[in-house]
Write a structure and sequence with these properties.
By secondary structure, the chain is an all-beta fold. The chain is built from no helices and 17 strands. The strands form five sheets. A five-stranded antiparallel sheet has the order 10-11-12-13-14, with no helix packed on it. β13 and β14 form a beta hairpin.
Length: about 200
């Protein structure tokens, strides 16, 4: 115990450098590396302090959270191939290594932060659904796709059947409807007259 300091244990390396300190509150401070063989159990919070101020990682026992502060990265792979972090403004998942970023599951959902509004739904051996404002607008089927609502395209080419439950609109006077393998039949309006 240093002179004038009560209830503190300090171990020094080579009688000069403070190696381990146990303070009055029971906290253990280790200067340099700590090598542990076997299983270690920590019954309270554990904090890992980053080299850059504020980029710390802490296990919060009371919340059951492993908290990564802003710009403290969780990395995976021998070459840090996958990064998961929050940069202070945005949450980031980045695959920067070899191979692909693969998400697997029988049902995959992409939702808003609360999980109450769907953006994308993928069901194994079934459809993929795209949503607008929590309403399905496009679904894949075994025959192709189903669009709910209107579809707008600068160019549309069909190599098989096209079915519409409502109107098909060509809203430009330069637009033409071609029918036949060699576009043998034309239907169009030039702004003044209609032609077949």
């Amino acid at each position: 115990t240093p002179a004038g300091v009560d209830n503190q244990l300090t171990l020094h390396n080579n009688n000069t450098t403070e190696a381990v300190k146990v303070d009055a509150a029971g906290n253990v401070h280790v200067n340099n590396q700590l090598s542990i063989a076997g299983v270690s159990t920590f019954s309270e919070d554990v904090k890992f302090v980053g080299a850059t101020s504020g980029r710390d990682v802490q296990w919060d026992k009371s919340a059951n959270y492993l908290r990564f502060k802003d710009n403290a990265f969780a990395t995976f792979g021998n070459s840090d191939d996958l990064f998961i972090y929050h940069d202070g403004n945005h949450s980031q998942i980045r695959d920067v290594g070899t191979g692909h970023l693969i998400l697997g599951g029988t049902h995959l959902y992409l939702t808003d932060g609360s999980g109450s509004e769907y953006f994308l739904q993928c069901i194994a051996n079934n459809q993929v659904d795209l949503y607008f404002n929590n309403s399905i607008k496009l679904s894949t089927t075994s025959a192709g796709i189903t669009v709910t609502g209107s579809a707008t395209a600068s160019t549309f080419t069909a190599t098989n059947n096209v079915s519409a439950g409502g109107n098909i609109s060509l809203t430009s006077d330069t637009g033409k409807l071609y029918i036949g393998a060699s576009q043998d039949l034309h239907i169009f309006h030039n702004g003044s007259n209609s032609y077949i």
